[in-house]
């Protein structure tokens, strides 16, 4: 019987522009063993004694060099099955708002783009990420987003 775990996070980094919100997409380096060259959002593994939202904040800083202004939890998770480990992973999802647009990518990535939800959903590899950028953008546009997203206060 497969194990169920929660050891990864996904974090959608967004920035407000005049024309609306744009999302940060990162391109994995071609030499990566897993999913080389795909466009993705920020992902990461939860470290020992780290809360999932702390992982999201850390990964945003490590993978993009950006400073999070606000952090929200989405009201659902993503999941996948790994036959190698015979485990089902449940992944908490976060939205991180930033003000700065100057990205410093880590060695895991070769490029980055700021794209609106329609453009981002065309570039992203995973169906769940394509759907999530549309869902997030729709909710960020409304004044009632706090009814949908739970905000986590970021310590300065």
Explain what this protein looks like in three dimensions.
- A hairpin with a 2-residue loop joins β2 and β3 (20-28).
- The chain has 156 residues and is α+β, with helices and mostly antiparallel strands.
- The longest helix has 14 residues, at 127-140.
- It is globular, with a radius of gyration of 15 Å.
- 29% of the residues are buried.
- Strands 1, 2, 3, 4, 5, 6, 7, 8 and 9 form a 9-stranded mixed sheet that branches.
- The chain has 4 helices and 9 strands.
Topology:
Layout: E1 3-5, E2 8-17, E3 20-28, E4 39-40, E5 42-45, H1 52-64, E6 68-82, E7 87-98, E8 109-115, H2 117-123, H3 127-140, H4 145-148, E9 150-152
Parallel strand pairs: 1-7, 2-7
Antiparallel strand pairs: 2-3, 2-5, 3-4, 3-8, 6-7, 6-9
Helix pairs in contact: 2-3
The separation of the N and C termini measures: 43 Å
Structural class call reads alpha+beta
Tell me roughly what share of residues is in helical segments: 10-25%
Shape: globular
Assembly classification: single chain
- What Rg do the Cα atoms give? 15 Å
Order of helices and strands: EEEEEHEEEHHHE
Point out poorly predicted stretches. none
Largest sheet: 9 strands, mixed
The average pLDDT value, as a whole number, equals 94
Number of helices: 4
Strand content: 35-45%
Total beta-strand segments:
9
Tag the structure with descriptive keywords:
single chain; 156 residues; 24% helix
Give a brief description.
The chain is α+β, with helices and mostly antiparallel strands and 156 residues long. It has helices spanning 52-64, 117-123, 127-140, 145-148; strands at residues 3-5, 8-17, 20-28, 39-40, 42-45, 68-82, 87-98, 109-115, 150-152.
């Amino acid at each position: 019987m497969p194990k169920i775990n929660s050891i990864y996070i996904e974090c959608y980094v967004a920035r407000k522009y005049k024309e609306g919100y744009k999302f940060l997409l990162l391109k994995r380096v071609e030499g990566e063993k897993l999913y080389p060259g795909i466009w993705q959002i920020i992902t990461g593994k939860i470290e020992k004694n780290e809360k999932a939202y702390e992982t999201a904040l850390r990964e945003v800083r490590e993978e993009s060099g950006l400073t999070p202004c606000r952090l929200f939890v989405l009201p659902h998770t993503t999941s996948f099955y790994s036959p190698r480990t015979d485990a089902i992973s449940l992944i908490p999802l976060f939205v991180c708002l930033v003000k700065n647009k100057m990205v410093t990518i880590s060695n895991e990535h070769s490029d980055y783009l700021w794209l609106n939800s329609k453009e981002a959903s065309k570039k992203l590899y995973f169906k769940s990420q394509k759907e999530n950028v549309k869902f997030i953008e729709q909710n960020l546009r409304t004044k009632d987003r706090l009814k949908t997203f739970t905000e986590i206060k970021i310590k300065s």
